[in-house]
Amino acid sequence: MTTLSFPSMRRRALAIIGTLVLLALGSLVLSCALGSVAIPLADMPAALVQMVHGTSSGASLAATLLELRLSRALVAFVTGAALALAGVMMQALLRNPLADPYVLGISAGASVGALAALMFMCALWVVDASAFAGAVIVSSMLYLLARRGLRSGAPAEGGASVLLLTGVILSSACMALVTLMLSIAPESRLRSMIFWMIGDLAGAPLRVLPWLVLAGGLLFAMRGARALNVLAMHAEGAVALGVPVGALRKGLFLASGLLTASAVTSAGSIGFVGLIVPHACRFACGPDHRLLVPAATLAGGAFLVLADTLARTVLAPQQLPVGVVTALIGAPVFLWQLHRLHRA
Question: What is the pTM of this model?
Answer without folding.
Answer: 0.90
